[in-house]
Protein 1
Amino acid sequence: MNGSPTVVVLDYGMGNLRSVEKALERSGANVLRTSEPEALSEADGCVLPGVGAFPRAMERIRALGLDQAISEAADRQLPILGICLGLQLLFESSVEQTETEGLGLLEGTVLPLPADGRKVPHIGWAEVDWVGDGALIDGIPSGEAFYFVHSYAVSPSKSDILGTASYGSRFVCAARKGSVAGVQFHPEKSSAAGLRLLGNFVGMASGGPGGPK
Amino acid sequence: MSELKRVIACLDVDSGRVVKGTNFVDIRDAGDPVELASRYDAEGADEIVFLDITASHEGRDTIVELARRAADEVFVPFTIGGGIRTVDDARAVLDAGADKVSVNSAAIERPELITELAENFGSQCVVLAIDARLEGERYVVHTHGGRRSTDLEAAAWAAEGVGLGAGEILLTSMDRDGTNDGYEIELTRKVAEAVPVPVIASGGAGEPADLVEALKEGRADAVLCASIFHYGSYSVDDAKSEIQNAGIPVRRTHTRT
């Protein structure tokens, strides 16, 4: 393809998207912030950001018709990256506030971060150990720190776990299956390591090595 | 594994420009807060704090513009302080890309501000900045850039602020600020022991050993530095090497973009 890949950043009215957009632009993407389901059919990649509560986020995503569009995009192997709440939304359900169904692109649920007596939300830098490998984490060694702000954590199928981190106890902080991936941390606030990860994602969106396009 | 301690670079900004001069040879504009912040990000700073000290408060617009430009260039969390007096002020800078806001005098005048901010944006967004000076036996809180004394004691005010919803304390020793004599350890430890949230030690850093002392003896969760970095005496990386060598876990990066 010619030029930069187009990455849509889905805007469903939850939280500040500016940092994500800027970090993706820095990583070589042509960024389109949108809440239009139709935009996904033209995209080379899709980022699902988000902060806030799971039930409200799913309510808005469904109201906008984005749930259907995201599922169809996953079916045709569009690279999708969930960030923070966006990772959690990829799962089957969450117990945050009230049991709520998610997008169901990854198997498993979202549960309170065990934290083992530590203060929740977990805020700050934590070192990540990769469990698997893949284009998304190319060039990022285990032990790099990423920036977290969260109170819940995902519990995926073992085979989908991409990375873990520790806060009181270990939790899964990255997961992927096929073209769908997500990270609990904020790569857009994680300096060089985060920009590298987003750059890898943009590479996947442009059909680079490991990109399923 | 212990949690990673943070090294925070602070930039005082007046009318959009960094106030204290810098000795950096290889940057285009030493007065541009965003260019400096971007450099600190590249050197390994874990966070950036922009403190707007513009006297005339014509300008909430200037801090919003600062946040917007910082979000373009800075890819670590950053805080904006100075001139945040209402929920709308905070929303404007958070929407522009800031991760946290810090409040100081405005929170003393109207403590409910802390609660309003926490309810709207979450405690993780709300930093209570405290400027304290030793008067007799007490660390007394001052406002308006240190010009006005209050009857508040630092640790008590910190605890009250956390009760109201502050998620972090940015604690500056006015006695040490600008001296390069090291952080005020007793003040730092008193406040750190009084609150269950992270305390950022500020004021007085002159060399990396001072940072180690504040983290170890002062029990701070983070150390804030300004001139020690601005004048190029030590890089963020130098500081982190020394902290790491003292056995304190800090973030070191090995990834190249």
Protein 2
Amino acid sequence: MANEDIGERGQWLFNLLMTDLGDRAHPYFRPRFLGDKYPTFDSIVEVVDHPAYFFFVQVKGTTRGYTPNGRRLRVQVSQEDVDRMVAVPAPTYVVGVDTALQVGFLLSVNEPRGPVAGLATRFPIDRRGREDLRDEVVEFWSARNMVLTDSRFKE
Amino acid sequence: MSSANEPWFVAERSEAVAGLLLTSREDVRVRHEPAQGGGSDFLVEIGADGRPSTRIFMVQVKGTTSPDPDDWRREVRQLFPAPGRPFYLPTCVFVVNVRDNKAFYAWAAEPLADANSATLRFHETGTFRPLDPAAVGEIIDRVEAWYQALPKQLVPA
């Protein structure tokens, strides 16, 4: 399977994981694909009912499985992409998706660090992971006043 | 059913489930567009070498939040061929329950192939069957057999 096909399957799985309903009437998140030409990030994800609260995600799909100890999914993120993610003043994450087992894992990339050589499996995108992610993103934005006052283009 | 009045996630989740199921076969590529009235239309190319393929078929995807087929059967009827609205490609209808990701399929334009001919049988109502990777394999195998027989139909001996 070509890399772009694995990437598309990864994106679909990511959308399914993020919009999982469980026993709720609506998902917690609404992912929006940014397009193939957008650098570093694949999706912007809104918190449902809070459209001003959002985060960016790079999705890495793989069929290569895990490291021998099972603790890391075999995906990589370059230093250049890590630096771009850290520079964004919004929550940013890498999501590794195992397209064979159809599971995904979260990694925060908001503080300076080296390249990602394998993605830890500590934070699966399950019910608890979604709840923790929603709480983290809501706390991030609700603690900040993001209104641009006194714009020079103000009417 | 997913329609203009349905929540956004019905169409988006059904599209994702359909895309995952179709690409469970490594020899297919898909293109998809939003369909009028909700849902998505998938154009599925069969071909393992990554180049554009002329072996294509259509999948019309509809999402639902109901596990009861009686709730969605009547509403998907419009996706099946009606007089004056012929189909020119093998065409399936996929219905996806976006709560549990279970899916069903029915042929709208069913490919029939034998040693000397390739025809399409139009169904005005669908006979829905469970959809899983094995069923996707059967769908693709039937479309491939149809395309293998088609040249004999198009080129007189």
